[in-house]
Amino acid sequence: MADSNITDRNRILEEFFRLTSFDAESFHERMIAEYVKEKLRSLGLRVEEDRAAERLAALHPGSSETASNIYAFLKGTKPGEPILFSSHLDTVSPGIGKKAILHEDGTITSDGMSVLGADDVSGLVSILEALTVIRETGAEHPDIEILITVAEEPYCEGSRFIEYKRLKAKSGYVLDLDGPVARAAVAAPSIISLKIGIEGRASHAGFAPELGVNALSIATDALSKIRVGRVGSDLTLNFGTIHGGSGRNIVPQTVEIEGEIRSRDHEKALKTAQETRKEFERAAESMGGKISFSVTEHIRGYAVSPESDVVRRFRAVAKEQMPKQKPEWITTYGGSDANRLNEHGIETIVLACGMERCHSTEEFTTIMALEQSARLTLGLMLYDATDYQTK
Description:
Helix content: 25-40%
Number of strands: 17
Number of helices: 10
Order of helices and strands: HHEHEEEEHEEEEHEEEHEEHEHEEHH
Distance between the termini: 10 Å
Low-confidence stretches: none
Shape: elongated
Mean pLDDT: 95
Strand content: 25-35%
Structural class: alpha+beta
Largest sheet: 9 strands, mixed
């Protein structure tokens, strides 16, 4: 069996600090993208890009510093099905001026003024370190495909434009999950957003309130009839923002509400959206108003069997790499680029890769977790089923 315990701690740390130093909030990933492309080329991979940058710039004005999705290919040195590994370039806000700090106990944090960026630099570092070891040792491997996406944080916008004709792999791993490194997400939800516009009629609230149609009253009537929160064992519904009105002495003519539905059952999510629409239509009709209602399907849910080949490979390598830590697979209510890959026939699970308290200024990782993630990634790249069948 190939030795996958030969990663370099100092090199991992150096790469982590270098990558987190880039300002790479969503739609502003160009500088880090250029660095990663050059790094992949230096490791002997063929590197390509798609047209995501121009498409994202057209959809999101002010995103001129965005980049395109990156595809990299390493020709195999032994027979076997190609395998895909993926992570993303962007960070959430606040992600400008990040400063990573290494503490004596091996923990790495930001200075508290921004996120650390371990989401998803830890995934990038794991992939780059594994490829570096392969380059140095000449370890035999099947065809390896790398997909590095942009604008993942805002509902996986960048991966909308993946060009699947470039990819041959039918299974893969997205390195983009928090928690212990031996954890994998094998199921994730559809995410659907709702935007509801309510129109009533304005009138002076002091002189002639009876002439108005209160859009806010329509909204509250509808919302009072709708269950929110964890609606069922596999469904959540939330209304997160509400805007409207023109003055405290004016009956509000317009109100806009935005919400979100998550469920691993895509049809159930769509049905809930339609039921929500009917409730708002009922309330508006009863009070003499009207509504507009838009539904945006961001990503589609998936569930990968724990007995699938992609999970079996993860389980075998995780046991080999971390014998004291039992591999676990979970259902997550967060989305990732794995949603899109599964939708397009690439059976994919999401791996924890050394990130904790993501999307906050308390985000952190550890040297041990980064090393474990790199070794696990290397093991997955070098995996040969016959090696594990003899154990």
